[in-house]
Amino acid sequence: MTQRTRAQERVDELDVSPTKLLADIEQLKGELETSRAKADEFLAGLQRERAEFSNYRRRTSEERDAMLGLAGEDLIRKVLVLADDFDLAIDNRPPELAGNPWFDGVTAIDRKLRALLESEGVRPVEAEPGMPFDPRQHEAIVTVPGTGRSEGEIVDVIRRGYKLRDRVLRPALVAVAAAPEGAETADAPDGAGMPDAPPGRTSGPGRGPARPSTG
Question: Among 5, 88, 120, 126, which residue is least crowded by beta carbons within 10 Å?
Answer without folding.
Answer: 5
